[in-house]
Design goal:
Helix content is about 40%, strand content about 15%. The strands form three sheets. It has a seven-stranded mixed sheet, sandwiched between helices. It is α/β, with parallel strands linked by helices. The chain binds pyridoxal-5'-phosphate. The site of pyridoxal-5'-phosphate has 15 residues, from helix 6. Keywords: Aminotransferase, Pyridoxal phosphate, Transferase. InterPro entries: Aminotrans_3, Aminotrans_3_PPA_site, PyrdxlP-dep_Trfase, PyrdxlP-dep_Trfase_major, PyrdxlP-dep_Trfase_small. This is Aspartate aminotransferase family protein.
């Protein structure tokens, strides 16, 4: 056995023994061991311990937006850690990276969004938004306004609060989700009926991803968010936009909601704020909400994570946002997003099974269908097989399968070029052709 393979074997054995993986089938881990053990990354590419290189077509977890291997971020982390690795931002304590990052977020976000509470990721940022919405209504003398409405097919995270708001079926199959979470489909009528049934006086907030990510890259119906904004205003319901995937350029604008011409009361951010180089997320609130909280709060709002506004994470995020701006990466998102859509259309011309092409910016998806006319899917999902085949050709893509979805999703790093987009498309073409040859039903 060569030394590279020996290293893999050694790590694989330890992996099975000690490493409990996130979102993992424990049985499969024991049977198969780790597929890739990644060791380095550059641009849109990842390399594993055995030297195999793959294109990271989902920016890992829709988050490595500037691409892998940017040393400036490592330097920003090192500089901050040498000066001050950690200090608390609890109560009246503060630090410059936190202050500067909060200012930057306020500058980038639309409308009157003004003040950020930092977390370590998206789930805790969503929990923070739900808790803060309920706290706000309690301060206003309406503690019964506590229900949170979210959408079917939504994904908001895995903490107890965030998974209780998540509408994707796989996350609902759990014995004890939190109370006071309700779901609607993506129609305005459904929300109106829900408000009618439950009573606006019991509803704290409505939350939605402007463009749903993990649910299959689903765009909202025409004018949907304009109507949502109006209904929330009419019924005194806070509107929370979950921008964890959409935010910081993924859709070709700073934030996903800007594509739909409205401003939410609260925004939830994570992933793209640091391109995954450091774990950080947050909740942004509007100026009026901020002012009311200041006016109404008398005691301490008992909410703060040890790592809220971790100085190193803030410094890394700031550098990441600086790079996105200086290198006009959001413009590249728009241009390469158009190329990706062209590629999807080319695929649909070559394969009658490719349909329901969707996307905005560098967030895109195609469905695999038995019959495009009737939207019928194959009885055995195909997208997973295509992803498996694509791995043999050096492409790490994402399959999304649940009732009503057999989808391939793509969200490559913002630094991608046309040739690389074409490579992704050509590997999918090849992989689907091979899967079809083996037979699909
Ligand atoms: N919200 C959305 C829209 C997400 O896509 C995710 C993660 O994929 C989350 C929230 C949860 O974020 P995290 O995994 O950082 O807790």
């Amino acid at each position: 056995m060569d030394s590279v393979q020996a290293k893999y074997e050694e790590l694989a054995a330890l992996d099975k023994k000690h490493f409990m993986h996130p979102t993992s089938s424990f049985k499969q881990q024991q049977e198969k061991g780790p597929g890739f053990i990644f060791t380095e990354g550059k641009g849109i590419y990842l390399k594993d311990v055995r030297g195999k290189q793959v294109i990271d077509a989902l920016s890992s977890l829709w988050n490595v937006n500037i691409g892998h291997g940017r040393e400036e971020l490592a330097e920003a982390a090192m500089e901050q850690m040498k000066k001050l690795a950690f200090s608390s931002a609890f109560a009246t304590n503060s630090h410059e990276p936190g202050i500067r990052l909060a200012e930057k977020v306020a500058e980038m976000t639309p409308g009157d969004l003004a003040m950020t509470f930092f977390t370590s990721g998206g789930s805790d940022a969503n929990d923070t938004a739900f808790k803060t919405a309920r706290y706000y209504w309690k301060l206003k003398g309406k503690p019964e306004k506590k229900k949170i409405i979210s959408r079917q097919k939504s994904y908001h995270g895995v903490s107890v609060g965030a998974s209780s708001a998540t509408g994707l079926p796989a996350f609902r199959d759990f014995p004890s989700l939190a109370p006071d979470f309700y779901y609607v489909d993506s129609s305005i009528e459904a929300l109106k009926e829900m408000i009618e049934r439950e009573g606006a006086e019991t509803i704290a907030a409505y939350i939605a991803e402007p463009v749903q990510g993990s649910g299959g890259v689903n765009l909202p119906p025409e004018n949907y968010f304009k109507d949502i904004r109006e209904i929330c205003d009419q019924n005194d319901i806070l509107f929370i936009a979950d921008e964890v995937i959409n935010g910081f350029g993924r859709t070709g604008k700073n934030f996903g909601i800007e594509n739909f011409g409205v401003v939410p009361d609260m925004m939830v951010i994570a992933k793209g704020i640091s391109s995954g180089y450091a774990p950080i997320g947050g909740m942004v609130i509007s100026e009026p909400l901020k002012n009311e909280l200041i006016e109404l709060t008398e005691g301490v709002y008992m909410h703060g994570y040890t790592y809220s506004a971790h100085p190193m994470c803030c410094a890394v995020a700031l550098k990441n946002l600086e790079i996105i701006e200086e290198e006009n990466l959001i413009e590249n998102v728009r241009n390469m997003g158009a190329e990706l859509q062209k590629g999807f259309n080319w695929l649909a011309d070559r394969h009658e099974e490719i349909g329901n092409i969707r996307g905005i910016g560098l967030l895109g998806a195609v469905e695999i269908l038995k019959d495009k006319e009737t939207n019928t899917r194959f009885s055995e999902p195909v997208s997973g097989k295509v992803v498996e085949e694509a791995l043999n050709h050096g492409l790490l893509a994402r399959s999304i399968v649940y009732e009503g979805q057999d989808t391939l999703a793509f969200a490559p790093p913002f630094c991608i070029n046309k040739e690389e987009v074409d490579t992704i498309i050509s590997i999918i073409d090849q992989s689907l052709t091979e899967v079809k040859k083996k037979g699909i039903k």
